[in-house]
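Supplementary Text 2. Reproducibility record for the structural model of the 212-residue chain.

All settings were left at their defaults, and a single model was retained for analysis rather than an ensemble. We include the record here because the model underlies the residue-level annotations in Supplementary Table 4.
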Amino acid sequence: MDDGRAHVAEPSGPPVGGVLVVHDWYGRLPHVRQACDDLAEAGLLALAPDLYDGRTTTDPGEAERLMAALEGGRARTRLADATDELRARTGGRRVGALGFSMGGMLVLEEATRGKFNAVAAYYAALQPREHPPIRCPLLLHLAEVDDWEPPDVPERFAAELRAAGTEVETHTWPGTEHSFANPDVPLHAPGPAAEAWAITVGFLRRHLATDP
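Retained model, structure tokens:
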């Protein structure tokens, strides 16, 4: 179901949990809706808000312009509203988040505010020591080649969280670049993307499939 604001995919039976799915800088392309549908098949109710109001692209230059035009406060408000809707739809069950690139950064920032019970983020990390701790379990999928400044940001981010007691699982996928899990753009790497997705679904089910 898509009402223009969000794509919602519901499982055939009662949901065992909910997942907020947040798109990358290209916008809510078809693979985001497919991810929601796949999560629903795994028993999780998935909701993907559209932060770009229907605009999408597969051109990196245009994607950069779309992201630059996204006002941070407005994006946080939309994510907060979407998370509230997700909690209502799942009857108060556990809620997690899945974000890709820009979306990964946004859900990690929301996780520092204690919004989720589990988070999976693709090619995203926060700068160490510039954020409150994340208390929920965290899964990071990283590309082998990415333009982090400095290059060790993901490793330092994960190490800092582990030192604070956060459960962190990381996977760096050989032969991949940023956006490797996005089948709508040329950098897609089908093999690693499929393996990463299987891990993601298992992680989210493991941490969210509990009774209220």
